[in-house]
C-alpha cells in the first residue's frame, strides 16, 4: 500500500510539473510571436506527448485540454472567437484534448512492441491530430470567412490560405521538435520504469 501511495504521489507531481510546463511554454510562444511574425515557435506539444506516454491517455488528454484553455484565454484565438465563439472554443479545446489522448492511446498500443517506436509514434501523432482537427474546424465552421481572408491575402484558394497562411511552417516546427526530442521521452519512460521497480522492491 505504501508503494502504491508513493507511486500515486509521484504521478500527481509529474502531472503538476507537466501542466506547468504546458502553461509556461504556450505563454512563452505567444510572447515570442512578435519576434517571429511569419510563424509561431511552440514547444507545447512536447510535454503533452511526454505526459501521454509517461502517465497514460487521461493525463495526455488533461494536458491537451490545459493547452487549449491557455490558447483561449491568452487571446491567441481572438480572430476566430470574433467570428464564432462557440465553435472556436469547441475546436480549440477538442484539438488539444484529442492530441494528448491520441498520443497516449498510440503509445500504449505500441509499447509492448518497442518503446522507442512507441515514443516516436506518440511524438508524431500529437501535432498531426492537433493540426488535423484545426483544419477540419476551419472547413466546418469558418469556411466563408476564411475564403474572404484568402481573397484579401491574394491566396490561390481557401485551401492554399489555410495551409500556407494559417498553418505555414508551424506544423513542421512542432513535428520536427517532437521527433528531435523523442529520445528524451524514451529516457523519461525508462526512468519511470526504474522508479516503479524501486518502489516495488523498496
Please tell me about this protein's structure.
The protein is an all-alpha fold and about 200 residues long. It has a single domain (about 1-200), classed as Arp2/3 complex 21 kDa subunit ARPC3, CATH 1.10.1760. About 85% of the residues lie in helices and about 0% in strands. The protein contains 10 helices and no strands. It has helices at about 1-30, 45-55, 55-75, 80, 85-110, 115-140, 145-150, 160-165, 170-180, 180-200. α1 runs parallel beside α3 (about 55-75), α2 (about 45-55) packs across α5 (about 85-110) and α5 runs antiparallel to α6 (about 115-140). The protein is elongated. The relative contact order is 0.12. Residues about 1-5 have low confidence and may be disordered.
What keyword list fits this structure?
83% helix, mainly alpha, disordered N terminus, 202 residues, Arp2/3 complex 21 kDa subunit ARPC3
Helix/strand structural class:
mainly alpha
Q: How many β strands by DSSP?
A: 0
Distance between the termini: 12 Å
CATH domain class: Mainly Alpha
Mean model confidence by pLDDT: 81
Report the total helices.
10
Amino acid at each position: 500500500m505504501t508503494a502504491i501511495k508513493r507511486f500515486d504521489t509521484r504521478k500527481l507531481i509529474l502531472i503538476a510539473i507537466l501542466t506547468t510546463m504546458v502553461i509556461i511554454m504556450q505563454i512563452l510562444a505567444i510572447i515570442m510571436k512578435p519576434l517571429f511574425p511569419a510563424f509561431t515557435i511552440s514547444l507545447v506539444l512536447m510535454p503533452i506527448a511526454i505526459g501521454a506516454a509517461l502517465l497514460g491517455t487521461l493525463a495526455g488528454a488533461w494536458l491537451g485540454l490545459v493547452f487549449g484553455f491557455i490558447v483561449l484565454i491568452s487571446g491567441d484565438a481572438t480572430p476566430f472567437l470574433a467570428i464564432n465563439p462557440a465553435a472556436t472554443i469547441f475546436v480549440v479545446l477538442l484539438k488539444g484534448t484529442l492530441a494528448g489522448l491520441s498520443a497516449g492511446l498510440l503509445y500504449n498500443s505500441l509499447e509492448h512492441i518497442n518503446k522507442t517506436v512507441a515514443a516516436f509514434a506518440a511524438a508524431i501523432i500529437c501535432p498531426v491530430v492537433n493540426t488535423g482537427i484545426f483544419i477540419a474546424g476551419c472547413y466546418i465552421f469558418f469556411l466563408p470567412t476564411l475564403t474572404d481572408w484568402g481573397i484579401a491575402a491574394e491566396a490561390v484558394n481557401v485551401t492554399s490560405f489555410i495551409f500556407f497562411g494559417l498553418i505555414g511552417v508551424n506544423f513542421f516546427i512542432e513535428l520536427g521538435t517532437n521527433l528531435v526530442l523523442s529520445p528524451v521521452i524514451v529516457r523519461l519512460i525508462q526512468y519511470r520504469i526504474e522508479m516503479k521497480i524501486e518502489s516495488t522492491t523498496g
